[in-house]
Design goal:
This protein is 7% helix and 45% strand. The protein contains one helix and 16 strands. A hairpin with a 3-residue loop joins β14 and β15.
């Protein structure tokens, strides 16, 4: 507690000094504790799978965000060593993880990535030995859309507390206000993961694009970045009352 109070006091002191003319507070130098091995081109948007039985054996799953054949999902250990590369993906963009999905009579943990240039989600499961991932399905998204409106980018997985249903909320390179994001319910279909579209939603300013999406499973909210404009908040449950009503808009300045 004393350490916390000392730290808090120091932060207030620094904040006070920063606001006084003629006083300069040096920028803190941030250094990584660990750096992963390099990928060939464009490392992007990692997700972390926490191993529930052995946290030190957790995995980092990231993308090499380029066209096939170099495009890939790359699995690292917590020391940054590459354990697995799943190549020949056509511009994999973002990736997320979810725990406890019933597949083929077993409870598995999922890894889902957007594959932009093939307009689909790539679904994987954590291997039983927790040393990597293995294929578990592919789901077409934004069907009927043309050009960049059919190209998925951001993804967030949501597990509904009341029944354990798992959903993928997907953003895209461009789209109209009111239906920029599409939501899919994930289901077991003969031991592979299939998806059913259940909702289109999401206001859009038209200024930039929408890529980053995050979900709070426990409280049931989805947040996304309307780039160059704001952060927007909606209910994550497609069956919620007024599910398509924007609940909040914030972080509108300071870009």
């Amino acid at each position: 507690m004393r350490m916390l109070l000392l730290l808090t006091g120091s932060l207030f002191l620094l904040a006070g000094c920063a606001g006084k003319p003629g006083l300069t507070v040096p920028a803190a130098e941030m250094r990584p504790a660990v750096a992963t091995a390099a990928v060939s081109e464009d490392a992007d948007d990692p997700a972390i799978w926490v191993n529930p039985r052995n946290p030190s054996g957790s995995l980092i799953i990231g993308t090499n965000k380029v066209k096939a054949p170099a495009g890939a999902l790359v699995v690292f250990d917590l020391e940054g060593k590459i354990l697995q590369t799943v190549a020949n993906l056509d511009r994999p963009n973002n990736v997320d993880v979810e725990y406890g999905f019933s597949l083929g009579g077993k409870m598995v943990d999922l890894v889902v990535a957007t594959e932009r240039l093939r307009s689909r989600l790539l679904v994987y499961r954590i291997r039983e030995d927790a040393g990597g991932i293995e294929p578990a399905g592919a789901i077409p998204v934004f069907e009927g859309q043309k050009g960049e409106a059919s190209h998925p980018m951001g993804i967030a997985l949501y597990k509904r507390p009341r029944d354990g249903a798992v959903f993928a909320i997907v953003s895209r390179k461009t789209g109209p206000s009111g239906s920029y994001l599409w939501q899919y319910r994930l289901r077991d279909q003969g031991g592979q993961v299939a998806g059913e579209k259940v909702r289109e939603f999401g206001a859009f300013s038209g200024r930039g694009e929408i890529e980053a999406v995050a979900v709070d499973d426990e409280l049931g909210f989805v947040y996304y970045a309307d780039e160059e404009d704001s952060i927007r908040k909606y209910a994550a449950d497609p069956d919620a009352q007024d599910a398509n009503r924007e609940l909040a808009r914030f972080a509108t300045t300071g870009f």
